[in-house]
Amino acid sequence: MSLYKQLQQREADQQPIRIGVIGAGKFGTMFLGQAIRLPGVHVVGIADLSVDQAKSNLKLAGWRNDQLSASSLEQAVVDRTTYVGDDSEALITHPAVEIIVECTGDPLVAIDHLTRAFDAGKHVISATVEADAVCGAELTRLARQNGVIYSMAYGDQPAMVCDLVDWARTCGFKVAAAGRGHKWNPKFRFSTPDTVWDHWGLTTEQAARGRLNPKMFNSFLDGTKPAIESAAIANACGLDAPDTGLAYPLGSIDDLPNLMRPRAQGGVLDGEGMVEVLNSLNDDGSEIDYDIRMGVWVSVRAETEYQRKCFEEYKVTTDDSGQYICAYKRWHLIGLELGLSVANVGLRGEATGTAEEFRADVVAVAKRGMEAGDILDGEGGYTVAGQLRPSAVSVPMGALPLGLTGKVKLTRPVKADAILTYDDVEIDENLTAVKLRRKAESRFLPYR
After folding, report:
1. pLDDT tens, position by position, 11-59
2. Are residues 314 and 276 in the same domain?
3. Is residue 59 located within the same domain as residue 130?
C-alpha cells in the first residue's frame, strides 16, 4: 500500500501519527504549512523560544486561529488542535507524541534535544543536519540503543541523495559519486551576513518577505552548508570526501556523467565512491544553462558490457565512454517535502537516511585573521566557514568541527584561511555535543 493510502487509513481509523515540532523557523514553517494538509498526521505541539513569532509564521503558512486554540498539550490531543509553547522538554516527554521533528538549526541545542528524545523513547527526524556533521554516527548508535529511529529529513538534500544512492545500488549499479548542486565562486568563502543577499541574487525586500535568516543563508553561500551536507551524505552512504575538500567543478546536468568519474577516466574525482558538489556559476557571475543548483544527483557506472549497451539502446545521456550516467532531481523543496520522512518513520519504521560511519568531517576555517579573546560566531557568520575533509585527515590534526564554533573564544591568534584546531579555542567539555564528538572520534578510528 502506498504511503499516502496508509496515511488515509490512519485518518479513517482516527489514529494519526502524532508529531512534536521543535523550531518554527523557515524549515519548520514550510513543513507545518504542509502538515495541515496531510491526512493521518497530527501536530500535537510546537516548541519555539519565540511563541509569538512561531504563531505569526504559522499564520503566514495558512494556519487558522482555531487550529492553534489548544491551551495545553493534553487539550491538543483531545481536540486534534495544536499547542504552541516554549517548553521543548514538555513536548519531548509527552506520552502522546510519537515523533519529534527537530529543526532549530543549532547543532549544540539540537544534540541536546535529540538525546533527550531518544531517552524518552521518541523517534526523531532531524532537519538540523549540522548535528550529523558533528557526531552523526554516534547519534545513530544512541537511537538504536534506545530502540528508536533517527532519520535525516527528506526535503533536505542529504536525505534525497540517500534515496538516489539507494535506488542505484538496489538496481545493481556501482555508485561513482553523489552530491548536490550549488552556486559557487571562491570569493564566497569570505561572505558575511552583510553581503549575502547581493551574492545570493535576492533583494533585501524579498529576503524580508520570506523572513529569511541572513546568517543561515550565508552558510549556504560561503560553502559551509555544502560541506555539512556532503559530510552527512558521505557518512550515511559510505562514500568518501576529497582529501583537500570540495572541488566545485562547473557544469550542467548533462555534464555530470563526464565530470563525476575518476580522473583516470577523464573526470574530476580522486576515485570512485566520492561526494562532490556541482557548480552552476560561471567565472563572470552568469549562471550556466540547465543547472542543478537546487538539486541532487548520483553518478553510476555500468559494471558490465550489457548494462552499457542498455544505456545506449535507451538513449541515456552518458559520458564519452558510455559507461557513466547520472540520475537526478533538479529541485529540493526543503520542509515542503518532509511528509515523506514522517510517513516513512511513522508507518514503515524506516529512516530516510541515517549516518552509519564517520568518513567525512567539516572543519572550521578562519574567514579573517583574529586575535586571542575574539569570539567565534559559528555557521554562516563573520568569523569562520566550514570545509569538507576526510575524518582520516581532520581527526589526527585535532581540527575544530565547524558545529562547535558558536560563541567560542579564541585562545591565540589565527590567520585567515587557517584550519582551526581544538588548541585554538576554549571548549566546554561538559556539553553533550562535545562529549558525543569525542566518542565519535575515538570510536571510529578504524575509518581513518
Report:
1. 999 999 999 999 999 999 999 999 999 999 999 999 999 999 999 999 9
2. yes
3. yes
Q: Which of 65, 73, 12 is nearest to 47 (CA)?
A: 73
Does pTM surpass 0.90?
A: yes
d(CA 135, CA 154): 19
Q: Whole-angstrom Cα distance, residue 265 to residue 22?
A: 46
Structural domain including 68 reads 3-155+335-348
Residues 286-336 have pLDDT tens digits of: 999 999 999 999 999 999 999 999 999 999 999 999 999 999 999 999 999
In a domain, 199, yes or no: no
Q: Going by DSSP bridges, is the β-strand pair 17-22/41-47 parallel, antiparallel, or unpaired?
A: parallel
141/264 same-domain check: no
Query: Can you give the chain as a three-state secondary structure string?
Result: CCHHHHHHHHHHCCCCEEEEEECCCHHHHHHHHHHCCCCCEEEEEEECCCHHHHHHHHHHCCCCHHHHCCCCHHHHHHHCCCEEECCHHHHHHCCCCCEEEECCCCHHHHHHHHHHHHHCCCEEEECCHHHHHHHHHHHHHHHHHCCCCEEECECEHHHHHHHHHHHHHHCCCEEEEEEEEECCCHHHHHCCCCCHHHHHCCCHHHHHHCCCCHHHHHHHHCCHHHHHHHHHHHHHHCCECCCCCCCCCECCHHHHHHHCCEHHHCCCECCCCEEEEEECECCCCCECCCCCCCCEEEEEECCCHHHHHHHHHCCCCECCCCCEEEEEECCCCHHHHCHHHHHHHHHHCCCCCCCCCCCEEEEEEECCCECCCCEEECCCCCCEEEEEEEHHHHCCCCECEHHHCEEEEECCCECCCCECEHHHECCCCCCHHHHHHHHHHHHCHHHC
SS (H, E, C) 208-222: HHCCCCHHHHHHHHC
Residue 51 lies in a domain: yes
Query: Cβ contacts of residue 196 below 8 Å, gap of 6+?
Result: 214, 217, 218, 221
Which CATH number characterizes residue 432's domain?
3.90.1210.10
Please state, in angstroms and rounded to a whole number, the distance separating the CA atoms of residues 200 and 122.
38
282 and 170 share one domain = yes
